[in-house]
Amino acid sequence: MHYPIGLLFDLLASSSALPWNITVHFKSFPEKDLLHCPSKDVIEAHFMSCVKEADALKHKSQVINEMQKKDHKQLWMGLQNDRFDQFWAINRKLMEYPAEENGFRYIPFRIYQTTTERPFIQKLFRPVSTDGQLHTLGDLLKEVCPSAVAPEDGEKKNQVMIHGIEPMLETPLQWLSEHLSYPDNFLHISIIPQPTD
Amino acid sequence: MKAILYSQRNEGPVPRRPTGLCAVSVAEHRCGPAHPPRSRRGKERRNSSGEWQEEGVRGRWPPKAAPAAMPSSALWAVDLFGRVFTLSTAGQHWEPCRDAQLEFKRVSAARDCCWGIACDHQVYVLVGASDVPIRCQEEAYENQRWNPVGGFCETLLPSDRWPWSDVSGLQHRPLDGVALPSLHWEWESDWYVDENFGGEPTEKGGWTYAIDFPAAYTRDKKWNSCVRRRRWIRYRRYKSQDAWAKIPSEDDPQQLPDPFSDLSVGGWEVTDEPVGRLSVWAVTLQGKVWYRENVSHHNPEGSSWSLVDTPGEAVQISCGPHDLLWVTLWEGQALVREGINRNNPKGSSWSTVEPPTSENGILHVSTGVCVVWAVTKDRKVWFRRGVNSHNPCGTSWIEMFGEMMMVNVGLNDQVWGIGCVDRALYFRQGVTQSELSGKTWKVIVAGREGDRSLSGSSFSLHSAGCFFGNEVRGSAESCGPGDTDASWEVPGPASSPAGLRGKESWKGPSHATANFPEATDLSSLRLLPLGLEEPDSADCHALWAWVSGGGCAVEAHTTLKWFTTQSGLCPSVQTLSLSITPAQTAAWRKQIFQQLTERTKRELENFQHYEQAVEQVRNARGTSSSRHPSVWVKTGALQWWCDWKPHKWMDVHVALEQLTGHDGAQDSILFIYYVVHEEKKYIHVFLNEVTALVPVFSEAKHSFALYTPERTRQRWPVRLAAATEQDMSDWLTLLNLSCCESRRMHGRPSPQAIWSVTCKGDIFVSEPSPDLEGPERRLPCDQMFWRQIGGHLRVVEANSRGVVWGIGYDHTAWVYTGGYGGGCFQGLASSTSNVFTQWDVKFVHIYENQRWNPVTGYTSRGLPTDRYMWSDATGLQECTKASTKPPSLQWTWVSDWFVDFSVPGGTDPEGWQYASDFPASYHKYKTMKDFVRRRCWARKCKLVTTGPWLEVTSVALRDVSIIPESPGAHGSGLNIALWAISDKGDVLCRLGVSELNPEGFCWMHVGTDQPFTSVSIGTCYQVWAVARDGSAFYRSSVSPSRPNGDCWYHIPPPPKQRLKQVSVGHTSVFALDENGNLWYRQGVTPSHPQGDSWEHVSNNVRHVSVGPLDQVWVIADKVQGSHSLSRGTVCRRTGVQSLEPKGQGWDYGIGGGWDHLSIRASATRAPRSSSQKPASKQNGQPPSVAGGPWQTPGPVCC
C-alpha cells in the first residue's frame, strides 16, 4: 500500500531532524510488501480511485460521477504540476455538500498507527450525530480507535497528527475533512507515540 | 478663485433667504420650526420638529445578526403561553417580541408588519421599526375671491366653494377640523403653505390665481384673476412602530358583535397600488368572515371592517400572498374565494371543496401563491394538487407524511408545521417551484435566547412555569408535551435536583454544581441557566401553538442555521464557510492556524536556499531545455466572432502562453488560430495591452469581449465564446489573472479606484494613475485598465476612504466588503474571505397589441403593416410569452407572466392603454378615435451570484452619494457623510459611516414635500437633490455636526427641462435632464451656494459623476468609433480648470454598454506610492504598439 509522503513523514520521521534524508533504492523492489506501479498511468489510476472512494463516502459518488473526464484530468494535472488553483477549481466541488445537510454523508478518513500491524483503520463515520451535534476529532477517535485517546485523568501517550500538526480534539470533523484532507480527499490521521523528551 | 474661497470650508450659516438675486427664485421649504440643538435630540422624539426624531439608534427589525450573507427576514411563532417570538433567517435563536406584555392567540405576518389576535380577542398590528417613518400628507385649500373693496378676502359668493376646502372644493375642510385617524398617529409639524407649484416656485404666500372656481390656476396674478387659492400642508406620522397597536374596535356594537378568533394577512402580490396594500381577513367566534378595508403602507391599521357573507360557519381563514383565500367551515369543508383580482381584492363568490375523507373534516388550511396545505381532524397533513390563480380550488388531495397541529405556508410557498405530538416546529425541506410539496419535515431546534435574558418579573406565573418546564424537561421528562399543568409542577424543589443532576452529567463539570444545594427557592433557580457556561438550547424545547411564515423569505440558496444547536458550524457553501462565523473564533481553529504557521517556519523557511529538485515546466512546448524563462501554455477550443466576411462565429483554437521572466514578471500572449478558405491564420493579443475583459452573457452563448486601446477606439472588441459557462469562467479567470499579473495588480482595488457598472450589471474598477487628471500629458481614457469585481449592481458610488456602496436592480443596497473576485472568478483571482452570495431581481416586459375592427372589437388580428401582436416596447421585435427568455443564462424566471399596471400614463382596469394607431401616445381610457390598444406584461427573473458585497438591510434605495474627500483632507476621524434616496423617494442620510464601519448604523429621514429621485453631496457638504417634478433642491447648513442640514431651497430646472440627476464635486455642480443634456450651475459661491443659472454643456449624456478635483466624467451615448457607434461610453471632460470648470471637450474611454460610473474616490493629483507603478509603467508605452499586433493575418501553422 502506498502512503502519501507527508503521511510517511508524520508517521515515521516527525521527530527526526530536518531536512529529512531519504534513501532512494533503485533495485530489489519489495514486491511482496508493495504494489509495483509500472507506469505513470497506474499512479494516476490509483490516485483517481482514491478520490472516487472518498466521494463514494461523501456523496454516494454523485459529484465525481457528474464530472467530465476533462475535470478528472484537471485534478490529476493540477496535482502533478503543483498548480493548486487548477486542482482546487475541481476539487472544491468535491468539498461541497447539499445545503439541507450539515456535512458529508460519511467522512473519508484513515487512521494509521505505528504500533500495530494493521495498515490502517477505516470505518463509516458520520460528521453529524443523530441529534444534530457536530462530531469532533475526539468523537471519531473514541469511536474507532479508543486506545489513541488518553483517559480523562491519564497521561497523554499519543500524538494525533494531520499534516504535521496536532489539531485539538474539539475540532469538528467536517471542518477537518474540508480543509485538511490530502489531495486524494482522505483525511490521513497518524497516531504516533508522544515523544518522551 | 472659487477654489480658494471654498477651501476655507465654509461651515458658517448660509443666509437662509438670499435676497436681491433676481435671477434665482429660491423658495424655502421648511418642515416646522428650527431644529433643536443637537444635545436635545434624544428627548425630542415626540416634539413636532420632525427630522431629529429619526436619529436615535434603534434596533433593527427584524433583529439582525452580525454581518450576515443573507437578508434577514423572520419567522413568527406563538408558544403555548401566548408569547410571540421571531426567528431570523440569518439567526439561530428565537427572539422574544419586543412588546412582551401581551399574550397572543394568533399571529399572521407579512414582510413589514404582523397582525395578531391577543388573548383579549382584540386585533393588534405590529409595524416593524424602520429608519424611514410612515408619514402622510394632509392638505387643505384656502380659497379667496377678489372684491373691489377689500381686495382678496375670505368672503366668497354664495355659489362658491367653502373658504377652506379639499382640492375639488366640494368638501369643507377647515384646518382645525382635520383630525388624526387614530391614537397611533401624531402630527409632525404645524400647517404651512406649500409654495411649490408644479415644480415652479410661487410668489410669497403660495397663492395661485384663476378667473373663477373651478378653473386653471396660474402662479401669476393677472388683471382678470378674480379668485385665488393656496395649499396648506401638514404631515402626520405613524408613531406606534415596533409595538403592538390595537385596532380600534368599531363604535357601533351592532356592526361587530362578537370577538375575533382567527385572522390572516396576505394579498400583497395582488396589486401594489397603493404601496404596501394588504388583505387582512378575520373570522369571528360566530363564524363570520370580515375584511379590513384600506390597509396599506401609509395606512397600516386600515379603516374599517366589512362583513363578507359566507354560506357556512367559518372557523379559520388563510389568505395567500396572491389571490388564494381559503376558509375552513365548522362542518369540515373548505370554502374557496373566487374572483379576487386587483380591482376586487375582496373577491366575488365562494365555492366549496370537500375534505379528503368524509369522516375527518378539514381543521386547518393554509394557502401560498399556488399551493394549499391542510390538516384534517385526525391531524393528517394534506397537500392540494393543481391549485393556481385560474383554478383556486385545485384538483385533488394528496396525503403527506406526518401529523401536525397546524401548517403555515410562507413566502415562496415554503411550509412550516407544528408537530402534533411534540408541539415542535417543523420546516418542510426541499420545497421548490418544481417540487411544491417538498421532501421532508425537519425540526427547528433554534434556542430561545430570550429565555435567558427575559427577567421573570415581566412575566405572568404561567410564563415562568413554562420557563422552568422547558428548562428542566429535557432531562426530568416529567413534563408531558402540551400539558402546561405538568410543566408547572416540575420546578418544585423536590423534583428539580434530579433534573439538574441529569443535566450536569450531560454537560460535564460545571461550577453550578457546587452552588446548587443552596438554591432552593424559585428565584435562584430561575437564574441558574445564566450561570451555566454554555446554556444549551436543545433541552429548552419550546411548545408552540402557532406559526406564521408570511414574512419569512427562504429560498433555494438560503442556508439556514435553525437545525443544529452547534455554534461552531460552518455553512456548506464554499464562500460562506470563509465568512465570519463562530467557527472562526473557535479555539481549535486558532490553534490549527498557529500550528500551521509554526510548521511552515520549521519545515520550509530554513530550507529555502535549497534548489528546486524538480523544475516546474508546465506542459512545456517542445523540449524546453532552458530553465528560464519558463513557459506554460493553456490551450483550448473557443468560438471567435469573425470581424470580416463571413461575419459569423468560427470555431477556433486558442492558446495562452505565459512567460515568466527572470525577475518573476509574467508576460502573456493570447493566440487565436483560425482557418479561412482552408488557410491557417492567427491573431494574437499581448495581455499587458488588454484594457478590459467583459463577459457578454447573451441568450444562447457564453461569450466575452476583449478590449485594447485600439479596439476601444474602434468600438469593436475581440469577441470569444466558450461552450459552457464553466469553460468561460475558466478562461475569464485565467485571462484576468494574466492581465493583472502583467500589470502587477493584486488584491483589492485601492481606495482611489474608479468604479463603474455595465448595463448588464457587471462591476468594473480602474486604478487611477497620477497623471489621469494631471495638467499636462494625461493618460488617454482608452488606455485605462478595467478589471471586473464579482457581483451585480445598477449603481455604484465610492469615496476615497474606501467606502463603496452599490444598489442592485431590485433597489437593494449593498456595501463593499474589501474583497475581490467572486462571480465567475475562482481560485487565486478571488479573495478567500469577504465574498458572499449576492442576488438581484428584475422584470422583463413584453407588450400585447390589439387592433379594433367593427365586427369583433379589439382582436389580436392586426393589419399586415402592423407591429407584431406580441412585441417589445418598440414593436420591432416579436416577443411572445413562450419565446421570451430571461436576459441571459445567469437569470432564471421566478414568476409567471402578469399584467403590469404601473406603466407611465396609467391603464384601464384590465391593463390596456389605447391609442389611435401604432406607434402613438397611449392613454388609459378608450375614446372613439382609438383603433389600437396595448398592454404590458411583466415577468420577474432573478440572478444569484457571489461578490464582495453585503446587503444593507431595511431600506431599498434608488440613489446614493458619498461625500468625496477634498485633496489634502485626511480622514480627520469624522464620520463619512452619505446621502441616499429610498425607492419610495424619501431622502435619507446615513449615520455612523466610517472606514471601519462602511455600512454605518442607521438612517436619518430628511423630510420633503414630494418624492425625490437623485442626490449628491460635494466635498464641502453641499447637498443637491432632484425631485420627481424635475426641479433641483439645495439643502442648507449640512455639516458634520448637523448631518441632515436645515432646510431645502427650491431651484427651478433649466427652461422646459426636467432634471433627473445631479452631481456635486468640490465647487462644481452638474445636472442632467431627461433628454440627456448636461448642465453646469453657474455662479455657485460659498456665500451663494445655490448659484444663478444653468448653462448647457453637452448633449447625449446618460450619467454624470463629478469628482473631488471637480473632474467631470460621464457615460455618453452616440459615441462614434472608427468601426461602430456605441451607447454607454465612459468619457472624461477635458480642459477642466478652476477658471474653466465646464471644460472643453471629451476624451473617450471604455464602452459601449457602460451604465454608471463613480469618479468620486479619485482625489489624488500628486504621484502616489508604489502601488501606482504598474499603471505608470504602462503609460510609458508608446501608444502605437497597440495598433500593431491586431492585423497580422500571416499564415502560421500551429
TrEMBL record, chain A:
Residues covered by the Autophagy protein ATG5 UblA domain: 1-26
Residues of the Autophagy protein ATG5 UblB domain: 106-191
Record's bilayer topology term: Peripheral membrane protein
One GO biological process term: piecemeal microautophagy of the nucleus
UniProt GO MF annotations: Atg8-family ligase activity
Intracellular or extracellular location(s): Cytoplasm; Preautophagosomal structure membrane
Entry superkingdom: Eukaryota
CC terms in the record's Gene Ontology section: Atg12-Atg5-Atg16 complex; autophagosome; mitochondria-associated endoplasmic reticulum membrane contact site; phagophore; phagophore assembly site membrane
Domain Autophagy protein ATG5 alpha-helical bundle region span(s) in chain numbering: 41-96
Position of the signal peptide: 1-17
Keyword vocabulary terms for this entry: Autophagy, Cytoplasm, Isopeptide bond, Membrane, Signal, Ubl conjugation
InterPro entries from the UniProt entry: Atg5, ATG5_HBR, Atg5_HR, ATG5_UblA, Atg5_UblA_dom_sf, ATG5_UblB
Family: Belongs to the ATG5 family.
Subunit comment: Forms a conjugate with ATG12. Part of the minor complex composed of 4 sets of ATG12-ATG5 and ATG16L1 (400 kDa); this complex interacts with ATG3 leading to disruption of ATG7 interaction and promotion of ATG8-like proteins lipidation. Forms an 800-kDa complex composed of ATG12-ATG5 and ATG16L2. The ATG12-ATG5 conjugate interacts with RAB33A; this interaction is bridged by ATG16L1 and promotes ATG12-ATG5-ATG16L1 complex recruitment to phagophores. Interacts with TECPR1; the interaction is direct and does not take place when ATG16L1 is associated with the ATG5-ATG12 conjugate. Conjugated with ATG12.
Function: May play an important role in the apoptotic process, possibly within the modified cytoskeleton. Its expression is a relatively late event in the apoptotic process, occurring downstream of caspase activity. Plays a crucial role in IFN-gamma-induced autophagic cell death by interacting with FADD.
PANTHER family (UniProt xref): AUTOPHAGY PROTEIN 5
Name listed for the protein in its UniProt record: Autophagy protein 5
Gene field: ATG5
